[in-house]
Amino acid sequence: MKKKIWFNRWFSNAYYFMNLIRNNPDNMDVYIYGSHPNKNIIYSTACDYFEVEPQLSGDEYVEYCIDFCKKNEIDIFIPYTELLLISKHIKRFEQIGTKVLVSGNYELLKIIDNKAMFYEQSKSTNIFTIPEYYIVNSASQFREAYERLRENHNKVCMKPVSSIGGFGFRVIDDSASTLNNLLGDINHKVSYEEVLKILSKQETFRSIMVMEYLDGPEYSIDCLAYNKELIAAVPRKKVDSRVRALEDIPELIALAEKTESLYNLPYIFNIQVKYKNNIPKLLEINPRMAGGLNATCFCGINFPYYAVKLLLGEKVTVPKPNLNIATTKLEHRFILDNNI
Length: 340
Known about the structure:
D-amino Acid Aminotransferase, Chain A, domain 1; alpha/beta; Rossmann fold; 340 residues
Protein backbone atom coordinates (compact mmCIF):
# COMPACT_ATOMS: atom_id res chain seq x y z
CA MET A 1 0.00 0.00 0.00
CA LYS A 2 1.36 3.40 -0.98
CA LYS A 3 2.50 5.77 1.76
CA LYS A 4 1.08 9.25 1.22
CA ILE A 5 3.75 11.84 2.01
CA TRP A 6 3.17 15.61 2.00
CA PHE A 7 5.73 18.42 1.82
CA ASN A 8 4.08 21.76 2.59
CA ARG A 9 5.58 25.12 1.64
CA TRP A 10 9.28 24.19 1.30
CA PHE A 11 12.28 25.74 -0.44
CA SER A 12 13.24 24.46 -3.91
CA ASN A 13 15.64 21.78 -2.67
CA ALA A 14 12.66 19.73 -1.53
CA TYR A 15 12.75 18.52 -5.15
CA TYR A 16 15.78 16.40 -4.22
CA PHE A 17 14.28 15.17 -0.95
CA MET A 18 11.12 14.01 -2.72
CA ASN A 19 13.09 12.05 -5.30
CA LEU A 20 15.40 10.54 -2.68
CA ILE A 21 12.37 9.23 -0.79
CA ARG A 22 10.76 7.98 -3.99
CA ASN A 23 13.94 6.18 -5.14
CA ASN A 24 14.51 4.43 -1.83
CA PRO A 25 16.59 1.25 -1.29
CA ASP A 26 13.60 -0.74 0.05
CA ASN A 27 11.31 -0.02 -2.90
CA MET A 28 8.72 1.46 -0.55
CA ASP A 29 5.80 2.61 -2.68
CA VAL A 30 5.08 6.30 -2.07
CA TYR A 31 2.70 8.96 -3.36
CA ILE A 32 4.18 12.45 -3.01
CA TYR A 33 2.00 15.46 -2.29
CA GLY A 34 3.38 18.99 -2.47
CA SER A 35 2.04 22.51 -2.01
CA HIS A 36 3.27 26.09 -2.29
CA PRO A 37 1.74 29.53 -3.00
CA ASN A 38 3.92 29.69 -6.14
CA LYS A 39 2.50 27.26 -8.70
CA ASN A 40 5.86 27.26 -10.53
CA ILE A 41 7.98 26.08 -7.61
CA ILE A 42 10.39 23.50 -9.03
CA TYR A 43 9.43 20.67 -6.70
CA SER A 44 5.95 20.65 -8.22
CA THR A 45 7.56 18.58 -11.00
CA ALA A 46 8.51 15.86 -8.49
CA CYS A 47 5.00 15.54 -7.02
CA ASP A 48 2.26 13.07 -7.85
CA TYR A 49 -0.19 15.74 -6.65
CA PHE A 50 0.48 19.45 -6.26
CA GLU A 51 -1.73 22.16 -4.80
CA VAL A 52 -1.37 25.95 -4.75
CA GLU A 53 -1.47 27.05 -1.12
CA PRO A 54 -3.49 30.02 0.13
CA GLN A 55 -1.50 32.88 1.61
CA LEU A 56 -1.96 32.03 5.28
CA SER A 57 0.20 32.10 8.39
CA GLY A 58 0.04 31.26 12.10
CA ASP A 59 -2.94 29.36 13.45
CA GLU A 60 -4.85 29.76 10.17
CA TYR A 61 -2.05 27.98 8.35
CA VAL A 62 -2.01 25.14 10.91
CA GLU A 63 -5.76 24.65 10.33
CA TYR A 64 -5.08 24.49 6.57
CA CYS A 65 -2.43 21.81 7.19
CA ILE A 66 -4.76 19.72 9.37
CA ASP A 67 -7.54 19.97 6.78
CA PHE A 68 -5.11 19.02 3.99
CA CYS A 69 -3.94 15.93 5.88
CA LYS A 70 -7.49 14.89 6.73
CA LYS A 71 -8.83 15.46 3.20
CA ASN A 72 -5.98 13.58 1.52
CA GLU A 73 -5.50 10.93 4.22
CA ILE A 74 -1.81 11.84 4.55
CA ASP A 75 0.34 9.21 6.28
CA ILE A 76 3.48 11.32 6.69
CA PHE A 77 3.69 15.11 6.87
CA ILE A 78 7.15 16.68 6.36
CA PRO A 79 6.70 20.33 7.37
CA TYR A 80 8.87 23.36 6.76
CA THR A 81 6.68 26.47 6.91
CA GLU A 82 5.34 27.08 10.45
CA LEU A 83 7.31 24.05 11.65
CA LEU A 84 7.44 25.39 15.22
CA LEU A 85 3.69 25.96 15.44
CA ILE A 86 2.98 22.60 13.81
CA SER A 87 5.12 20.95 16.50
CA LYS A 88 2.89 22.57 19.13
CA HIS A 89 -0.17 20.94 17.54
CA ILE A 90 1.43 17.60 16.67
CA LYS A 91 -1.13 15.58 18.65
CA ARG A 92 -3.94 16.96 16.49
CA PHE A 93 -2.23 15.48 13.44
CA GLU A 94 -1.68 12.17 15.19
CA GLN A 95 -5.38 12.03 16.07
CA ILE A 96 -6.28 12.00 12.36
CA GLY A 97 -3.65 9.35 11.57
CA THR A 98 -0.87 11.59 10.26
CA LYS A 99 2.70 11.20 11.51
CA VAL A 100 4.72 14.43 11.47
CA LEU A 101 8.46 14.51 10.81
CA VAL A 102 9.32 16.92 13.62
CA SER A 103 10.01 16.75 17.32
CA GLY A 104 6.94 17.04 19.53
CA ASN A 105 9.01 18.90 22.13
CA TYR A 106 7.62 22.35 21.34
CA GLU A 107 9.36 24.09 24.25
CA LEU A 108 12.77 22.85 23.08
CA LEU A 109 12.12 23.84 19.47
CA LYS A 110 11.01 27.30 20.61
CA ILE A 111 14.41 27.76 22.27
CA ILE A 112 16.33 26.39 19.27
CA ASP A 113 14.42 28.72 16.95
CA ASN A 114 15.64 31.77 18.87
CA LYS A 115 19.43 32.04 18.61
CA ALA A 116 19.70 34.32 21.63
CA MET A 117 17.73 31.94 23.85
CA PHE A 118 19.60 28.90 22.54
CA TYR A 119 23.04 30.48 22.94
CA GLU A 120 22.21 31.46 26.50
CA GLN A 121 20.88 27.99 27.31
CA SER A 122 23.90 26.33 25.66
CA LYS A 123 26.36 28.08 27.97
CA SER A 124 25.40 25.71 30.79
CA THR A 125 25.69 22.48 28.75
CA ASN A 126 29.41 22.65 27.91
CA ILE A 127 28.68 20.99 24.55
CA PHE A 128 29.14 23.99 22.27
CA THR A 129 31.64 26.81 22.15
CA ILE A 130 29.55 29.95 21.71
CA PRO A 131 30.83 33.01 19.80
CA GLU A 132 30.99 36.28 21.72
CA TYR A 133 27.73 38.08 20.99
CA TYR A 134 25.32 40.81 22.10
CA ILE A 135 21.60 41.24 21.47
CA VAL A 136 20.60 44.75 20.42
CA ASN A 137 17.29 46.53 19.84
CA SER A 138 18.45 50.11 19.23
CA ALA A 139 21.17 51.99 17.38
CA SER A 140 22.90 52.97 20.63
CA GLN A 141 22.98 49.34 21.76
CA PHE A 142 24.42 48.35 18.37
CA ARG A 143 27.16 50.99 18.67
CA GLU A 144 28.11 49.79 22.15
CA ALA A 145 28.12 46.11 21.13
CA TYR A 146 30.22 46.81 18.04
CA GLU A 147 32.81 48.76 20.02
CA ARG A 148 33.09 46.01 22.66
CA LEU A 149 33.54 43.31 20.04
CA ARG A 150 36.15 45.29 18.12
CA GLU A 151 38.30 45.35 21.26
CA ASN A 152 38.84 41.57 20.96
CA HIS A 153 38.08 40.70 17.33
CA ASN A 154 39.24 41.87 13.91
CA LYS A 155 35.80 41.60 12.37
CA VAL A 156 32.20 41.78 13.53
CA CYS A 157 29.03 40.41 11.90
CA MET A 158 25.30 40.61 12.53
CA LYS A 159 22.12 38.63 11.85
CA PRO A 160 18.51 38.47 13.06
CA VAL A 161 17.94 36.47 16.23
CA SER A 162 15.41 34.33 14.36
CA SER A 163 16.12 33.67 10.68
CA ILE A 164 16.53 30.91 8.11
CA GLY A 165 19.89 30.04 6.59
CA GLY A 166 21.93 33.12 5.69
CA PHE A 167 18.98 35.53 5.51
CA GLY A 168 19.93 38.81 7.15
CA PHE A 169 23.57 37.84 7.77
CA ARG A 170 26.02 40.69 7.18
CA VAL A 171 29.74 41.17 7.79
CA ILE A 172 30.47 44.68 9.04
CA ASP A 173 33.41 45.82 6.94
CA ASP A 174 34.26 49.40 6.04
CA SER A 175 35.74 48.25 2.73
CA ALA A 176 32.12 47.64 1.70
CA SER A 177 31.81 51.36 0.97
CA THR A 178 34.29 51.22 -1.91
CA LEU A 179 33.42 51.47 -5.61
CA ASN A 180 34.83 47.97 -6.21
CA ASN A 181 32.34 46.54 -3.74
CA LEU A 182 29.45 48.49 -5.28
CA LEU A 183 30.22 47.29 -8.82
CA GLY A 184 31.59 43.85 -7.95
CA ASP A 185 29.95 40.56 -7.00
CA ILE A 186 26.99 40.49 -4.65
CA ASN A 187 28.24 39.86 -1.11
CA HIS A 188 27.21 40.12 2.52
CA LYS A 189 29.43 43.05 3.45
CA VAL A 190 28.11 46.35 4.80
CA SER A 191 29.98 49.24 6.39
CA TYR A 192 29.61 50.21 10.04
CA GLU A 193 28.40 53.71 9.14
CA GLU A 194 25.74 52.35 6.78
CA VAL A 195 24.39 49.98 9.45
CA LEU A 196 24.33 52.72 12.07
CA LYS A 197 22.57 55.11 9.69
CA ILE A 198 19.86 52.58 8.86
CA LEU A 199 19.32 51.46 12.45
CA SER A 200 19.16 55.07 13.68
CA LYS A 201 16.03 55.64 11.59
CA GLN A 202 14.02 53.63 14.13
CA GLU A 203 13.89 54.06 17.87
CA THR A 204 13.75 50.29 18.37
CA PHE A 205 13.70 47.24 16.10
CA ARG A 206 13.40 43.46 16.40
CA SER A 207 16.33 41.75 18.07
CA ILE A 208 19.60 41.58 16.16
CA MET A 209 22.59 39.51 17.21
CA VAL A 210 25.92 41.31 16.87
CA MET A 211 28.81 38.87 17.20
CA GLU A 212 32.43 38.10 16.47
CA TYR A 213 33.10 37.09 12.88
CA LEU A 214 34.30 33.50 12.54
CA ASP A 215 36.91 33.37 9.79
CA GLY A 216 37.48 29.61 9.56
CA PRO A 217 35.73 26.87 7.55
CA GLU A 218 31.98 26.36 7.95
CA TYR A 219 30.46 22.91 8.45
CA SER A 220 26.93 21.55 8.48
CA ILE A 221 26.56 18.23 10.30
CA ASP A 222 23.58 16.29 8.93
CA CYS A 223 22.28 13.84 11.51
CA LEU A 224 19.91 10.87 11.74
CA ALA A 225 18.86 10.01 15.27
CA TYR A 226 16.21 8.44 17.44
CA ASN A 227 15.67 8.09 21.19
CA LYS A 228 19.00 9.75 22.10
CA GLU A 229 20.94 7.49 19.73
CA LEU A 230 22.88 9.03 16.86
CA ILE A 231 22.48 6.68 13.89
CA ALA A 232 24.49 8.67 11.32
CA ALA A 233 26.31 11.99 11.14
CA VAL A 234 28.13 13.46 8.15
CA PRO A 235 30.08 16.75 8.31
CA ARG A 236 29.58 18.81 5.15
CA LYS A 237 32.12 21.59 4.54
CA LYS A 238 31.23 24.75 2.64
CA VAL A 239 34.13 25.16 0.19
CA ASP A 240 32.57 27.89 -1.95
CA SER A 241 29.12 28.83 -3.28
CA ARG A 242 28.81 25.61 -5.29
CA VAL A 243 31.25 23.09 -3.79
CA ARG A 244 30.65 21.03 -0.66
CA ALA A 245 33.13 18.52 0.78
CA LEU A 246 32.01 15.53 2.86
CA GLU A 247 34.68 14.93 5.47
CA ASP A 248 35.46 12.61 8.37
CA ILE A 249 35.86 15.01 11.32
CA PRO A 250 35.76 13.00 14.60
CA GLU A 251 35.31 16.07 16.82
CA LEU A 252 32.24 17.15 14.84
CA ILE A 253 30.70 13.67 14.95
CA ALA A 254 31.33 13.64 18.72
CA LEU A 255 29.59 17.02 18.90
CA ALA A 256 26.57 15.52 17.15
CA GLU A 257 26.54 12.56 19.55
CA LYS A 258 26.53 14.88 22.58
CA THR A 259 23.79 17.02 21.03
CA GLU A 260 21.50 14.05 20.47
CA SER A 261 22.23 12.60 23.91
CA LEU A 262 21.18 15.86 25.58
CA TYR A 263 18.34 17.13 23.38
CA ASN A 264 16.87 13.91 21.98
CA LEU A 265 16.12 15.42 18.56
CA PRO A 266 14.32 12.71 16.58
CA TYR A 267 14.57 11.60 12.96
CA ILE A 268 16.70 14.24 11.26
CA PHE A 269 18.45 17.47 12.22
CA ASN A 270 21.41 19.63 11.29
CA ILE A 271 24.10 21.42 13.30
CA GLN A 272 25.97 24.36 11.82
CA VAL A 273 29.36 25.41 13.15
CA LYS A 274 32.16 27.68 11.96
CA TYR A 275 35.78 27.49 13.04
CA LYS A 276 37.96 30.19 14.54
CA ASN A 277 41.47 29.47 15.82
CA ASN A 278 40.81 25.75 15.20
CA ILE A 279 37.76 25.77 17.48
CA PRO A 280 34.31 24.94 16.07
CA LYS A 281 31.81 27.51 17.32
CA LEU A 282 28.05 27.07 17.15
CA LEU A 283 26.02 28.93 14.55
CA GLU A 284 22.65 27.16 14.88
CA ILE A 285 20.71 23.91 14.98
CA ASN A 286 18.00 23.13 12.42
CA PRO A 287 15.48 20.51 13.66
CA ARG A 288 14.68 19.49 10.07
CA MET A 289 16.31 18.62 6.76
CA ALA A 290 18.87 21.27 5.86
CA GLY A 291 18.96 22.93 2.45
CA GLY A 292 22.23 21.24 1.45
CA LEU A 293 21.23 17.75 2.59
CA ASN A 294 21.05 16.49 -1.00
CA ALA A 295 24.83 17.03 -1.25
CA THR A 296 25.38 14.96 1.89
CA CYS A 297 23.38 12.07 0.41
CA PHE A 298 26.20 11.52 -2.10
CA CYS A 299 27.94 9.76 0.80
CA GLY A 300 25.61 6.81 0.16
CA ILE A 301 23.12 7.42 2.98
CA ASN A 302 19.58 8.33 1.92
CA PHE A 303 18.91 10.67 4.86
CA PRO A 304 15.34 11.73 3.90
CA TYR A 305 14.15 8.14 3.40
CA TYR A 306 15.76 6.81 6.58
CA ALA A 307 14.19 9.68 8.51
CA VAL A 308 10.79 8.56 7.18
CA LYS A 309 11.53 4.97 8.27
CA LEU A 310 12.38 6.16 11.78
CA LEU A 311 9.13 8.14 11.90
CA LEU A 312 7.25 4.95 10.95
CA GLY A 313 8.92 3.11 13.83
CA GLU A 314 10.96 0.86 11.57
CA LYS A 315 14.50 -0.33 12.24
CA VAL A 316 17.17 1.57 10.33
CA THR A 317 20.60 0.22 9.42
CA VAL A 318 22.61 2.70 7.38
CA PRO A 319 25.63 1.90 5.19
CA LYS A 320 29.06 3.22 6.06
CA PRO A 321 29.30 6.70 4.53
CA ASN A 322 31.68 7.36 1.66
CA LEU A 323 33.53 10.43 2.92
CA ASN A 324 36.42 12.63 1.85
CA ILE A 325 34.66 13.47 -1.41
CA ALA A 326 33.59 16.81 -2.91
CA THR A 327 30.31 17.61 -4.64
CA THR A 328 29.22 20.48 -6.84
CA LYS A 329 26.05 21.54 -8.65
CA LEU A 330 24.94 22.75 -12.04
CA GLU A 331 21.76 24.59 -12.95
CA HIS A 332 19.25 22.42 -14.79
CA ARG A 333 16.12 23.52 -16.60
CA PHE A 334 12.80 21.71 -16.26
CA ILE A 335 9.55 21.72 -18.19
CA LEU A 336 6.59 22.83 -16.07
CA ASP A 337 3.29 21.13 -16.79
CA ASN A 338 1.17 24.12 -15.86
CA ASN A 339 0.82 27.23 -18.01
CA ILE A 340 2.61 30.41 -16.91
